[in-house]
């Protein structure tokens, strides 16, 4: 009998280059926003490279995504060493097997429909406060402001700490994030070294929040409250080190990606005023001057399409890392055990066989008539399979609440002669941080 392993070992490796002896192509991967596109043009939709110290294979396209994300017998989660160390050993995104499943199940309660409806008033309050602040500033560099906004949303709703962006925690996050995808040299002046120091300080601050909450009589229904109440079969709760790593992950995952998504929303609507007008008409018709409800949101089909297009055209997470735990094959190439594998969200979203004029911002591509993302795994801003984004529904809700109040009541124009080129690491954002003039309608 020939096993998959025997057969795959006889197949060729995909084309591609490993780059420099130790570093491989890591520097190019980190610096060049077109790293994947250039190699795809040169080698095709499957190629080998070496990044973050691992011989790796990149596979692009809907079929590849399905193969990687639904075959857990071949692939396990893996992150670059820098990300692993900075997230910490007890983080859900590093946990595996039954521990991952049970933690995920528990945390998912904080993102179920009933919980989400409960978050709506809190989201509205934070959103209104920021919109009024931006109106008073008028000439806005938006990206850092959006970072504070998404941070406040995450810290208020997930761990019950209001105005979190004004605390030392939020300031530490920026340097911590800058170290996530780096070469892990722990020296004081490297990005990684700085981020390591920030991790220590972040955990100390988070510990204070956790201990304060542990003393409260009512643990609360937010994500931290759920973790504080959780008990396993033997009646044991989360250890303090695990609580701290999980809070760190939720705060990070809960604001950094949203920051990028909202930035793309603001930029795309400034560049496409006809989309903004159409969206405004829908909001005025469905919501009018009332407060937003979950029922309103269900009725806004155009809003749904615009948000989908924002996450297609610049997905905040460009792809994901896995390691091969059992050799296998894909399209006639060997995928050897021990190697890294990357699935590609950004390149899949630019596939011309799926999306017409993929470079164009065109929300109507998701209308029922065109339905361009009908092929499974061709649209995956939140990943897929058992590691699909836990905060997907929360993120979509924040984006919609933000969009409704912003577009209904305000206008904004891009300041001329700014650099809108995208920097992609840690999440995509324009080089000059998006400068706009901002005013009430
Ligand atoms: C637009 C915003 C967001 C995008 C585009 C996004 C995208 C993603 C993607 C692509 C993954 C899977 C990575 C992989 O396959 O390796 C992921 C995982 C995850 N996301 Fe999000 N995310 C967003 C917002 C959020 C929010 C708001 C939260 C929490 C409040 C969150 C929490 C998580 C967690 C905990 C995981 C790890 C899940 C696991 O390993 O089981 N994300 N996200």
Automatic annotation (TrEMBL):
Q: Which UniProt keywords apply?
A: Heme, Iron, Metal-binding, Monooxygenase, Oxidoreductase
Instruction: Extract the CDD domains matched here.
Output: CYP120A1_CYP26-like
InterPro entries listed in its UniProt record = Cyt_P450 (IPR001128), Cyt_P450_CS (IPR017972), Cyt_P450_E_grp-I (IPR002401), Cyt_P450_sf (IPR036396)
Family assignment from sequence similarity: Belongs to the cytochrome P450 family.
Q: What is this protein called?
A: Cytochrome P450
Source organism (scientific name): Floridaenema fluviatile BLCC-F154
